[in-house]
Amino acid sequence: MPLELGLTFGAMWLFLARTRGPIVPVIVLAAILLLLQAANWFGPVATEVTPGTSFTAFFAYGLATLAAWWLGTSRTLRLRRG
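Structure (tokenized):
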């Protein structure tokens, strides 16, 4: 679990260090990723795949993708001087 969080938020930090833009999309994406991770770790384990679990998974994936798209479109590349 710590490795997964480290890789995810390490990649986000690297992206943020090389771009500039508003902070709200960053906070929204981080919150969504943390909530989905918490639900995965601490939520009930499904014993079988039902249409409800499939819908929930597609919804969660779509929500995270939408937040990542918003973050990507709201930031611009930071130019290096030198």
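The beta strands are 19-20, 76-77. Residues 2-77 form one domain.
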